């Protein structure tokens, strides 16, 4: 458990960033590998960039609310 | 000597070397040079082993797409972590009890007293430098082998030799220019550098992860610059927004404490 926590803290140390990026990766993987979602592949770049910006904003807003 | 191959390899490799060297440079300036160079040298050794054992077969056996995806995702995570800290510091919202800040204060105190600080190996810095050099180095190896092999089967050795010469010149040139900008970079405040590192890691991470997902970025590698501008702009907007939030919080808390004191005084009065 300690080792997992150490790796988590080393790589990211923030649950919102970790979950947000994981969800983005799963969504992009689905778009890439599921044929029914193939028409969305043109939007993959936008999805990735917007997801990164949303994750950054979300984690900062949580910090700001936490400081109240 | 195949000049066309050498020039094409030089230009393509220069882009990859600049990407790798940028990360090695910022790790060296922000964390320490020992960690940065150990990471870069370890990656160079790994590359030498991979290229030495696999050689031309490297192009067929190493799935560069998967490597790009994994490294890209890890860089996005690292980058967002750094960017978040830097933005919080700029906006004044950084937590008071911060071990990293305490460590930095101690370092500053030691420097002020004129004591020498032993630059210890930082795993974070070593890993960052290692990954950047390994990934970009593999890409250079790919460029050299694919460009070199594309000439003709009879001229393959000469082709790979020419491509390798082009790549080597590009590498030396990037290291030389990097060594020249190393000193001016030291004058930049640490939080600013960390902010820049966060922006760069997130930009490179987004680009590589996107390539791993077979995204065809417009303008190819030049799109990294567009990502940098985009993340910089968003970060400045976020810093401004958080500063306003902090000012509002301060105003509210001072109003609360003023009304509390007034209330207390009214209760004390006979």
Tag the structure with descriptive keywords.
heterodimer, A: 68 residues, mainly alpha, 3 helices, B: mainly alpha, 9 helices, 83% helix
In short:
The complex is a heterodimer of chains A (68) and B (270). Helix content of chain A is 76%, strand content 0%. Chain A has 68 residues and is an all-alpha fold.
Task: Explain what the structure shows.
The complex is a heterodimer of chains A (68) and B (270). Chain A is mainly alpha-helical. Chain A is 76% helix and 0% strand. In chain A, helix 2 runs antiparallel to helix 3. The longest helix of chain A has 23 residues. Chain B has one domain. By secondary structure, chain B is mainly α. Classes of the chains: A mainly alpha (68), B mainly alpha (270). At the A-B interface, helix 2 and helix 3 of A face helix 4, helix 8 and helix 9 of B.
Instruction: Provide the residue-averaged pLDDT of chain B.
Output: 75
Low-confidence stretches of chain B: none
Q: State the helicity of chain A in percent bands.
A: over 70%
pLDDT average of chain A, as an integer? 88
Number of domains of chain A: 1
Q: How many β-strand stretches of chain B? A: 0
Q: Per the principal axes of the C-alpha atoms, what is the gross shape of chain B?
A: elongated
Structural class of chain A: mainly alpha
- Return the domain count of chain B: 1
Q: What's the order of the H and E elements of chain A?
A: HHH
Radius of gyration of chain B: 24 Å
Tell me the span between the first and last alpha carbons of chain B.
101 Å
- Unreliable residue runs of chain A: none
Task: Report the β-strand fraction of chain B as a percent range.
Answer: under 5%
Please count the helical segments of chain B.
9
Topology:
The complex is a heterodimer of chains A (68) and B (270).
Chain A: H1 2-11, H2 15-33, H3 44-66
Helix pairs in contact in A: 2-3
Chain B: H1 3-30, H2 33-54, H3 58-61, H4 64-91, H5 99-112, H6 123-149, H7 156-186, H8 190-212, H9 223-268
């Amino acid at each position: 458990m300690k080792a997992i926590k150490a790796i988590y803290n080393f790589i990211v140390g923030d649950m919102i960033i970790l979950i947000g990026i994981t969800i983005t990766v799963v969504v992009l993987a689905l778009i890439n590998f599921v044929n029914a979602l193939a028409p969305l592949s043109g939007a993959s770049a936008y999805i990735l960039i917007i997801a990164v910006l949303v994750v950054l904003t979300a984690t900062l807003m949580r910090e700001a609310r936490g400081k109240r | 000597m195949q000049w066309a191959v050498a020039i094409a390899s030089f230009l393509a490799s220069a882009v990859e070397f600049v990407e790798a060297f940028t990360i090695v440079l910022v790790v060296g300036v922000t964390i320490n040079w020992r960690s940065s160079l150990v990471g870069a040298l370890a990656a160079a050794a790994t590359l030498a082993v991979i290229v030495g054992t696999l050689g031309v077969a490297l192009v067929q056996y190493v799935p560069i797409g998967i490597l790009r995806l994994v490294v890209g995702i890890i860089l996005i995570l690292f980058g967002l972590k750094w960017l978040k800290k830097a933005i919080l510091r700029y906006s004044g919202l950084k937590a008071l009890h911060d071990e990293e800040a305490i460590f930095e204060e101690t370092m500053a105190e030691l420097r002020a007293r004129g004591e020498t600080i032993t630059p210890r190996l930082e795993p974070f810095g070593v890993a960052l430098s290692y990954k950047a050099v390994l990934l970009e180095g593999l890409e250079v190896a790919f460029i050299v082998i694919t460009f070199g092999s594309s000439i003709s089967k009879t001229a393959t050795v000469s082709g790979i030799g020419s491509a390798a010469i082009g790549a080597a010149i590009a590498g030396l040139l990037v290291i030389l220019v990097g060594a020249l900008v190393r000193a001016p970079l030291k004058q930049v405040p640490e939080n600013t550098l960390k902010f820049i590192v966060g922006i760069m890691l997130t930009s490179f991470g987004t680009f590589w992860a996107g390539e791993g997902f077979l995204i065809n970025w417009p303008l190819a590698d030049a799109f990294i610059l567009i990502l940098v501008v985009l993340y910089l702009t968003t970060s400045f907007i976020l810093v401004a927004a958080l500063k306003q939030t902090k000012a509002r919080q301060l105003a509210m808390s001072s109003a609360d404490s003023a009304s509390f004191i007034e209330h207390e005084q009214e209760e004390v009065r006979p």
